[in-house]
Amino acid sequence: MTLIFEQLLNGLLYGIMLFLMAAGLTLIFGIMGVINLAHGALYMVGAFIGTWVASATGSFWLGLPAALAASTLTGIVVELSVMRRLYGRSHLDQVLATFALILIFNETTVLLFGRQPIFMQLPEALAQPIELLPGLLYPPFRLLIIVAGLLVALGLYLLINRTRIGMLVRAGSTNRDMVRALGVNINLLYTAIFGLGSLLAGLAGFMMSPVLAVQVGMGEQILLTTFVVVVIGGVGSVKGAFVAGITLGVLDTGLRAFVPGLLRQVMAGADADALGGGLAAMGIYLLMAIVLLVRPKGLFPMKG
Question: pTM for the complete prediction?
Answer without folding.
Answer: 0.91
